[in-house]
Specification:
The complex is a heterodimer of chains A (about 150) and B (about 725). Chain A is α+β, with helices and mostly antiparallel strands and about 150 residues long. Helices cover about 20% and strands about 35% of the residues of chain A. Chain A has 2 domains: about 60 residues; about 80 residues, Alpha-Beta Plaits (2-Layer Sandwich). The C terminus of chain A is likely disordered. Classes of the chains: A alpha+beta (about 150), B alpha+beta (about 725).
Chain lengths: ~150, ~725
Amino acid sequence: MPASDQTPLRFAPLRGVRITAKPTAIDTATWPAAAIVVRVAPDDLLVIDASIDDAATVLAADPHAIIEDEPMFRGAWLTEAQFEELVHRVEWPLPQHRPAMAQGMVCGLAIKLVLEADRTLLIVSGSAFHEVPDRLGAVVTIPHLTEARA
Amino acid sequence: MRLVIDGTPIDFAPGDTVADAIVRSGQHPQHGGTLCLAGDCGNCSAVVDGVGFTRTCLTTAQPGLEVRRHPLVGGPAADMTPPLDPVRVRLAPEPSVRRMRIDVAVVGAGTAGRDEADAARAAGRSVVLLDSGTGDDVVGVYPGPLVIVRRPDHMLHIEAHEVVIATGAAELHPVCEGNMLRGIVTADAAAHLAERGISFDSAVTVDLDDLDRFEGADGWLTAVVTTDGTRHPGSTAIVTSARRAPRDLLARMSDETAVRVVGAAAQRFDLPAAPKAGVVCPCSKVTVDDLQGVWDKGFQHLELVKRSSLCGTGTCQGGACMPHLRAFVADRSGEVPAPFTGRPASRQLTIGEAAADFHLDAFRRTALHDEHVALGAHLDRFGGWWRPWNYGDHVREYWAVREGVSLGDVSTLGKMIVSGPDAVEALERLYPCNVHDIRPGRSRYALLLNERGHIIDDGMICRETETRFVLSFTSGGASFAEMWVRDWIDSWGLDVHVADRTFSQGAINVTGPLAGELLRRAGLDEPPKMLQHRHADVAGVPCHVMRLSFTGEASFELHHSTAHSVELWRELMRLGRDLHIVPHGLQALFGLRLEKGHFLVGLDSEMDSTPRRLGLEWAVKMEKPDFVGRTSLLRVADLPDERRLFGMTIEGNAPTEGAPVFDRQGGTVIGYVATSFSSPMLGHGVMLVWQKRLPFLDQVWIDGRVATVSPTPFYDPEGARARI
C-alpha cells in the first residue's frame, strides 16, 4: 500500500536510563524537563534523555532498585497521518486518552508507542531495527537504513 | 484500449469488465458454461495478471491486463519455480491490512441493504455499507463477527457489533444436457451485456421450466430444445426463471446472532426440478451421473454427496450448483436438505491476501552484525538471532581458539539482573544447585528445570553483592527463561526485582591461551580467575568481565553496553592483530564445546531430559529443601531409566548428526547421534549419543563402524587449559 504520508520516518538511537524498582520509589524521581518518561509497568520505567544520576532519589527510596543505562531502543516521531496509518496495523486496543503508553506486536515487531498530547513516539528494539523498513514500510515511508542511522 | 487474452490483444470499452471485453470479442472466458456476470458462479474465472480463478466479471478491464484461460481439464498450471526461502526472500509486495471498528457492517448496497444502513444511522449507530460494485469485495465473515473485505489496494478487517447480509438472490443456472456449451447467459447477464452495448445476432430466450437441453457444435451453442420437443436454432440462449437462489454464502459462514440476513438473501425460494442430465457443478465439473454414482454407493445425505462428489466445493461454494444439488437429494430422499455451511473465503484469494498482516517473528541482529558482515561472515539464524556460522574458514577459527586467541559474539546470551532482599531465596527455589554459598564475585554453572524435572535451559549465576545477581541463559532460551523467572518470583511473592538486559548488553567472548595477554593489552591487568567475575574497563569500555569456559580454553566474557560493542570489538581486534586474532563462528564453537563434552540445550537434550539422563546429577543438590522440579526428580530417582546421553568416540570422521545407533552390525536401532564433530586436535570423531534401551552398551555401531563410550571431556579432562 502506498504510504499516505510521504514524510520519511527518521529513527534515532534513544539513550536513557532503565529502572526496575518499587513503584513508590519510582514515583519519587523528578526528571529533566526534556526527558521522555515511559512507564512500561508499575515497577519498570524507561526514561529517555536522562541518566543514572537523575535516578538518585529512586535508589535512596529503594536500595535494591536496578538502575542501568538503556541503549537498546531506537525511536521516531510519527506525523499525525503516519500514526493514523499505523493504527490500522495495530491489532490490540490503543488507549483512548493521551498521554499514555502502549506496547505490543505490530507486523511481527515489538513496539512501544508513547502517546503524548500532540505527538507520538514509535520505539523499536535496536536488535530488530533492520526489519522496520520491510515491515512498516507499507505504513510509513522509511529511508534506507543507512540513511536512518545517519 | 486493449487487454491481452491468451496472447492476443482484444479491444474493450471504457467501463467494461474483463468478462464484458471477452464476450464483446466473441469469445468465452472459459471453455463454456452459463455466464451470470454477477459473481455467483465460477464460469468466467481465469488467470488475470498471474492470479488464477479470478472472476473476470468482477474485474475491471485495464490496458495491458494479461488474461489466460484456465485449461479445459484441471486448474491453471502451478508455478514450478524452485522454492524460495520465505524468510530470506520477499516474494511479492505484501497486501496491507486496514482495520475498522464499527457498530454495523451492511453487506450489499441494494434496496434492503440501504434500508438497513439508513435505519442503523437513524438510530445513532456507526455504519459501513459494503458492496462489490464499489470495490468492497466481502470474502469472509468470521466469529466476532469479523468481516474480511478485499479492496483493490488493501485488505480491510472490520470488527462489527452487527453484520447485516443483504446480498440479494442469484439467478438459477440451467442444468441439462449441453449446459457447458458457449453461448448461454442468464437473463440478468443478457440485460447487463445489452447495457454495455453488446448484442447477440440470434438469441433464444427460454424459461428454465421449459428447457430440455442445449445442442451445439465445436463447443458453441446451435439450438435450444424445449420440453415440448421444439428445436429453437440460435447461437445464444438467454435463460430466465421466476425462481432464484438466496445469495447467502456469507451468512452461512456464521451462526452468530450478530449476523443477520435480510431481503432476498433471506428469502426461501422453491427449488428447481431435480436435474436429469448435464453438469451440476461447473467448478468441479460434476455431472448428474456423478451424483447418481455416489448416491448409489450409499452417500445419501447432502454433506456426503457433496464431499464424495466434490459438487459445491469449487470456487463458488455452491453459488451455481447448490439449488440443483439440493433438488437432486430432495428428489431421492423425499426431504429437502438444508444448505450446507459456508466457509471463508467466498472468493479465491492470493496467498498474500490471505496472509496479509501475518508476520514471521523477526530474527534479531546483535550490535556487531555489520562487523561480522565486514569480516566476511556467513550468517545464519540460530536461537532467534542472525549469528556468524563461520568467517570463511572454520578450521582456522578452531585453531585460533586452541592455540592463539579469538573473539566470539555472544551478545545473544540471555542476561538478567535479580536484585532484592529475597534474591537468594528466589534463586534457591528456582535453581537445583546451591546459591547461598556463591560468594560475591564468584559464579556457578546452573541448570534450569521445569516442574517435571526436565532441563529447560542452563547458564551461569554470578553473584555481585549479597542481594544482587546476574544470570545468563542460552540464546534460544532467553525469552522463555525471562518469563519463567518472573512468573515464579511473582507467584512466590518475594521481594525481588528482575530486569532483563539481553538486548541492552552486548557480550564478547575472548578465548584462547592468549586471551589473558590480549586483555592485558586492553588494560585489564588482573583478569578474574576461573568462575570469578568483576567490573572493569577493557579498552576503555566499562565491562562486566566473567571468566568461564565453554571452549575449553581460557575464556572471558565481556558484558557491556551495546552502545560500545563496536568500539570494543574493533579495539580488541586491533590489539590482537600480531597475535593473529580471528573471530570464530558457531561452526567452530560447536566443535570446540563438543570436545569438552558440553551439551547444548535443545540440540543434545530432548524435551524430557532430566539431569540424570544427561549425566548432570552433580549439578543438582537434592538435599536442598525445595526447588522447581525437585519433587519430580525425587519420585523417579529410584526408578530405572532407559535413556542416557553418552560421550562416544569413533575412529575417522564423525558420523552425521542424527545417524541411527545400532546395538550390533545389522542389529537393532537403540538410539541416535545427537551432535558430532571430527576433532582436529584428537584426530578422531567425538559425539554425544543417545542410547534408549537397557542395558546401556559400551560399544555400539554407527555408520557400519564401532563407536565406544568415552568419558567427557574428550579434550583436556583436567581442565588445566581453561585455567591458564
